[in-house]
Amino acid sequence: MSRSQISTVIICRNEAHIIGKTIAAAFQFTDDVVVVDSGSTDGTQQLVAATGARLLETGWEGYGANKNKGVAMAKYDWILSIDADEIVDDILAKQLQTLTLTDETIVYNILFRVFLGNTMIRYGEWANDAHIRLYHRKQAGWNEASVHEALQLPDSVKVMTLKGYIHHYTSKDIHDFSLKTVNYAMLNALKYHQQGKKAGWIKCHAAATFSFIKNYFFRLGFLDGEAGFMVAKMNAWYTWLKYVRLRELNREGGNVED
To answer: What is the 3-state secondary structure (H, E, C) of 80-113?
Structure first.
């Protein structure tokens, strides 16, 4: 089986339930998989070691910073950056095996299929998801944002979209979804506070209400049935939590540590 000169960099914490599948999919097209673990307590590290992937154990400094740590360890300059719950499908893996990587100024956009549990979400906010995840590390790198990190790209880059999908198993179940929702809301509230943003009472409630209406009705989330309702409801809750926490931080003032 041919292997591409692409290093796959995975960040994770407590992903023992899925990390093995994610790494196995990556080894379909590369011989270099780097896993950056930020303090797992569920045996993730042992599972990673058993696969043959290279493991970096480190603290949590934010999504962007931890991704950059893995990139620094990579064997190849071309980087596929994924999370532990993002699995490359067979079509994408085959294209990555044969991709001609001669132009450093090209970055590659990848389509996503997003799942809640084992249910694929076809409508609402999670539909038509796509991200630039394959790039040359001399041309691009992650910013240091603690959440909602972004690739810093020069104006000269060209974007191409690959065939196939990354399957994103965003949450095991509703409980897991709830925990992640709260965590992302708190992190984003802190980020907004540090940026000097404000949120009033109207913003907290109006933004959450509009989020639900937009995703459940305008973006046809109701066609996903119960799962679509839960996604729209939880995204609205995330919006409300984010702005309510931002109001608290604004009232407290001063420097707030993460």
So the answer is: EEEECCEEECHHHHHHHHHCCCCCCCEEEEEEEE
Where in the chain do CATH 3.90.550.10 domains reside? 6-171
Does domain 6-171 match CATH 3.90.550.10?
yes
- Looking at residue 258, what is its pLDDT? 40
CA gap 220, 227 in Å, rounded: 12
Positions of E strands within 97-197? 106-116, 119-121, 129-136, 141-142, 151-152, 158-171
Give tens-digit pLDDT for 20-38. 999 999 999 999 999 999 9
Percent of the chain at pLDDT exceeding 70: 97
**Residues 6/96, Cβ–Cβ less than 8 Å:** yes
Let me know: does 128 contact 36? Beta carbons within 8 Å: no
Q: What is the CA 114 to chain-centroid distance, rounded?
A: 11
Q: Which two tokens stand for residue 102?
A: 């001669």
Token couple for 169: 């198993």
Radius of gyration of the chain (CA): 19
Lookup result for tokens 């064997």: 75
Q: What is the reported pTM?
A: 0.92
For residue 256, name the pLDDT band (cuts at 50, 70, 90): very low
Helix (H) and strand (E) counts in the chain: 7, 11
What tokens appear for 200 in the block?
Answer: 């009033």
